[in-house]
Design goal:
Layout: H1 4-33, H2 37-63, H3 83-110, H4 114-144, H5 148-158
Helix pairs in contact: 1-2, 1-3, 2-5, 3-4
Length: 169
């Protein structure tokens, strides 16, 4: 049985994961408006990943005998100045999510919930990958600057990204 404190921490994180999905959906719309279909694809993969992350926690709470109650999702930002600004925002957001996953791990440690810690360790590792992936695209955008030909090439590269459903836990 999951403790109330651990359940509450997971419910808060589920909301943050769903907000991430919502934020990335907003960013997808931004890229669609610029007709950058490779960036749209990259965001589609992110959206699917964030949904899978939320559902992994959702299912875990239920599996442990907890009760899932969902809260409202905040409205995300809807406009940016450039693809570079979007990826700066993504990196900042992923760093925030990392801090929240670490806080979730703190609750698992505090409540001595080893089962939760096993699950959370997967998310900690995933956040390292998330920040690295975003950082790589951001570095490319920094190099590109205002070169539209290079942006076009990067757009074609990002179109190759595919979603693979994660095995969480």
């Amino acid at each position: 049985m999951i403790s109330e404190k651990m359940q509450s921490a997971f419910l808060d994180q589920i909301n943050k994961e769903l907000y991430s999905e919502y934020l990335y959906l907003s960013m997808k719309a931004y890229f669609a408006n610029l007709n950058l279909q490779g960036f749209v694809n990259w965001m589609d993969v992110q959206i699917q990943e964030e949904h899978a992350h939320a559902m992994g926690m959702f299912d875990y709470v239920i599996e442990r005998g907890g009760k899932v109650t969902l809260e409202a999702i905040d409205k995300p930002q809807c406009d940016w100045q450039s693809p570079y600004e979007v990826f700066k925002a993504i990196l900042a957001h992923e760093q925030y999510v990392t801090s929240r996953i670490n806080a979730l791990a703190d609750v698992a440690q505090e409540t001595n919930d080893r089962a939760a810690m096993i699950l959370i360790n997967w998310y900690i590792k995933e956040q390292v990958e998330e920040e690295s992936n975003v950082g790589g695209v951001l570095a490319q955008l920094e190099m590109i600057g205002n070169d539209k030909h290079a942006l076009y090439a990067l757009d074609k590269e990002l179109a190759q990204r595919t979603f693979t459903a994660p095995v969480i836990g």
